[in-house]
Specification:
By secondary structure, this protein is an all-alpha fold. The chain contains six helices and no strands.
Length: 150
C-alpha cells in the first residue's frame, strides 16, 4: 500500500513514530485498508498518543491495584492471563482476508492443540512458528502469491 506521502513533517513523524507499537501499527493498517481512512500525520499522531495515554493510564492503575488481583475470583484471574493473546487474536481476525485462510487456519489449529497439550505460553510461540511455516509453504510450494494492491 502506498498510502504515506513521500514528504513528512520531521517533528510530527518523530513523535508518532515514537508511539508506533505492534498494536498501533495493526490498528492503523486496519483503519487504512478496510475502513478507507485517509492517512495523515495528524491522524497517526492522534492514534499513537491516544494509545500511549491508554497504556500509561493502564500501567498506573495496574501499579495501584496489582495487589488486589489475588482477591479476584479464580475465573477472572485466569481471564487476565488470556487478555494479551486475545488482543492479538482480535487484530488478526480484524485484518483477516480470504486469501490468508490457509495460514490463519494452520496457526489457529496448531495453537489450540499446543494449548491443550502443552500450555498457553508455548502455544503462542508454536502458533507463530506454524504460521510462518504455513506462509512459506503457501508461497514456495503451492506457488500462491499474495499480490499487494498499489
Amino acid at each position: 500500500y502506498n498510502l504515506i506521502p513521500n514528504k513528512l513533517n520531521l517533528k510530527k513523524t518523530a513523535v508518532w513514530a515514537w508511539g508506533l507499537t505492534d498494536e498501533v501499527f495493526a490498528s492503523g493498517m486496519i483503519q487504512l485498508s478496510q475502513r478507507k481512512q485517509q492517512w495523515s500525520e495528524s491522524w497517526m499522531l492522534g492514534l499513537s498518543l491516544f494509545s500511549w495515554m491508554s497504556w500509561a493510564s493502564g500501567s498506573l492503575l495496574g501499579g495501584l491495584f496489582a495487589n488486589q488481583v489475588a482477591h479476584l475470583p479464580k475465573f477472572l484471574q485466569a481471564a487476565l492471563d488470556f487478555l494479551l493473546p486475545a488482543l492479538f487474536l482480535s487484530f488478526l481476525l480484524a485484518a483477516f482476508e480470504r486469501k490468508h485462510t490457509l495460514v490463519v487456519g494452520v496457526s489457529l489449529v496448531v495453537s489450540a492443540l499446543a494449548c491443550y497439550w502443552i500450555n498457553l505460553s508455548a502455544a503462542i510461540f508454536i502458533g507463530i512458528f506454524s504460521g510462518i511455516l504455513a506462509g512459506l509453504f503457501k508461497h514456495y510450494v503451492l506457488k500462491q502469491f499474495d499480490e499487494v494492491e498499489a
